[in-house]
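Shipment paperwork, digital attachment
Item: protein structure file
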Amino acid sequence: MSAHIKAQGLSKTYRVPVREAGLRSAVKSLFRPRFDEVQAVKNVSFQVERGEMVGFIGPNGAGKTTTLKMLSGLLYPSSGSVDAAGHIPWKRKPHYLQKISMLMGNRSQLQWNNTVYDTLYIFKEIYGVSESEFKQHLSELCDLLDLGKLLTKRSRNLSLGERSKCEFALALLHKPEILYLDEPTLGMDVTMQLRLREYIREYNRRFGATVILTSHYMSDVTSLCERVLLINQGKLVYDGRLATLTERITPYKIVKLTLDREELTQEELRTQRIKAELTEIQGNEYTLRVHKQDTVTAGALLMSLYNVLDFSITDPPMEAVIDKIYTEGGLG
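Attachment content:
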């Protein structure tokens, strides 16, 4: 199967003006400006198949948004190439723009002084959506996002959460085949985040849409994407299955147990020769960190020595895995 999106050696360097503080330096910079070069994205290569949902994650300033802007054609790369649905994105051909949607949670496409409905109708005309398709899709989006009361509001009067919902409706109005989603659930409450994830999953299933998703809410990524791209300081440091990260990076499991009474301490674990670290206590509920090779032995000892009411073994939270990569260079 040919790739729907193919990036090869993608790089982006910005020239950033620099000067020292003070009036004299400010005047001098007018005649002899100095610049530093900041490489935001460094030789990034990857492929995304048609219908695939890929998480694109990294810390602030890692290069995620810059990469998405190049994929969508908002930025020219300094070097490298991209083929997206048979197009070079930064040529901004209308046929390509009709196939994609770029949703940025911290940027607004809404017309500030128009009502939400008027902005949606403008987008309908821009993308050539028929009247019947517009009504049908708008009805679906209104049910999903509870937009009914927002359609007559001016965009400037919306809250952050309301604006996020309306931006999402704009992004999907013309049923794009490629979605670039940059923090799509920003400002939404937990309930709406869940509904939005479910809709993205259903949209992907129904229309075979290709999705590249960035989010600081790891639950967005873990619930939608089997594959992730990790970028740090402009470099792609991992491309593979999300589940594999835990195996490669984190050598321990999380054991949670509930006892019939409060009695477990780190000293007692050492006395009983249970190789585990007690990390959290809440009443008679205990959380332990156990190396993978010791999990079976530690679990058996705990079950035999104590009256256990509840017991579970899980992988560490994905946030902890990602943090380890960035702070300790876990992927080398």
